[in-house]
């Protein structure tokens, strides 16, 4: 029996939650504010007036926080904007740069005063787009907390890694009440999942598989990536949890040796169907349990990388891995 689980609900509960909070009003926030920003403290004297964001997951977070109308530019979503969840017209109205990996010059061309991005999610020493270089140009930044591991040791990945981003953005943009309410709701939902599956002894072996549509080495995740955390919270075990990093290249031979029982397939720039077609037709993978049983979980990029969509993905994964724990 072939089992695919994918997509997002037809409605956008997180976005609706943010709009409800906005409609309810909020207390005026005082400035300046200070937030942890990787291994430094960033100080904001006022909310950014011309903010920019890079990549699909961080764009989704800004949308869900109700900040779409403040954005002066978005990059990294060209060709995958249909993956974003928002009310009709919101995504189409976003001012976009076509760059999948913007240069410093491209960012400066829209005259932003703030950029939300991450290491390997936009920031790059090789391309000269770094928080330090932007600071020299008068552009403030906030760095995706998960990505800080690319430049130094951070605390082990946890849902607090995501919550730190949401609370920092809430403080930076003067929507603290909205961010705190969102985090409280996420904590409640995560606790409801872990109450059901946290103590399970039989944890299925799970692999995250991106760029799995060819024989080239696939991209997977070590224990410090958000996707790995979601596997663990959902009652599974990441087969590459011995790698102390986030997203990493692995070999097909090692994947076969570790024999995942479920494979998480990314639906982003490469259609999930293409990856599944390759996985199920490659002779060297025929004996992998997940392939043999056709057990795939399809997640969007925003669901499996840090964003406001992670909790929805967690709930779906837990129900998939342990359906017996969620029966009425």
TrEMBL record:
Instruction: Name residues in a coiled coil.
Output: none
Q: Which domain of life is it from?
A: Bacteria
For this protein, the record's InterPro entries field holds: ABC_Transporter_SBP, ABC_transptr_periplasmic_BD
Q: Where is the Fe/B12 periplasmic-binding domain?
A: 50-325
Signal sequence bounds: 1-28
For this UniProt record, give its keywords in alphabetical order, as a comma-separated list.
Answer: Signal
Supply the name of the protein. Answer: Iron complex transporter substrate-binding protein
- What organism is listed for this UniProt entry? Azospirillum palustre
Q: List the taxonomic lineage.
A: Bacteria, Pseudomonadati, Pseudomonadota, Alphaproteobacteria, Rhodospirillales
């Amino acid at each position: 029996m072939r089992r695919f689980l994918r997509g997002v609900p037809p409605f956008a509960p997180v976005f609706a939650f943010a709009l409800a909070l906005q409609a309810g009003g909020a207390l005026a926030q005082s400035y300046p504010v200070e937030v942890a920003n990787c291994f430094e403290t960033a100080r904001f004297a006022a909310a950014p007036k011309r903010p920019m964001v890079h990549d699909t997951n961080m764009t989704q977070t800004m949308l869900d926080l109700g900040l779409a109308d403040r954005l002066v530019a978005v990059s990294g979503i060209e060709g995958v904007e249909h993956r974003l969840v928002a009310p009709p017209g919101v995504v189409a109205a976003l001012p976009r740069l076509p760059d999948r990996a913007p240069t410093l010059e491209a960012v400066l061309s829209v005259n932003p005063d703030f950029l939300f991005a991450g290491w390997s999610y936009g920031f790059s020493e090789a391309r000269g787009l770094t928080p330090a270089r932007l600071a020299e140009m008068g552009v403030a930044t906030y760095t995706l907390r998960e990505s800080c591991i690319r430049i130094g040791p951070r605390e082990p990945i946890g849902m607090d890694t995501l919550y730190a981003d949401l609370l920092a953005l809430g403080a930076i943009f003067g929507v603290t009440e909205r961010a705190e309410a969102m985090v409280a709701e996420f904590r409640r939902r995560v606790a409801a999942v872990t109450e059901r599956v946290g103590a399970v002894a039989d944890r299925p072996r799970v692999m995250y598989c991106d760029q799995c549509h060819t024989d080239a080495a696939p991209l997977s995740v070590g224990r410090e990536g958000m996707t790995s955390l979601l596997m663990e919270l959902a009652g599974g075990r990441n087969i590459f949890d011995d790698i102390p990093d986030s997203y990493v290249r692995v070999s097909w031979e090692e994947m076969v040796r570790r024999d995942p029982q479920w494979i998480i397939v990314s639906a982003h720039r490469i259609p999930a169907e293409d990856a599944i077609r390759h996985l199920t037709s490659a002779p060297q993978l025929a004996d992998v349990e997940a392939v043999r049983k056709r057990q795939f979980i399809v997640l969007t990029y925003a669901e499996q990388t840090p964003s406001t969509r992670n909790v929805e993905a967690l709930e779906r994964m837990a129900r998939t891995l342990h359906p017996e724990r969620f029966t009425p």
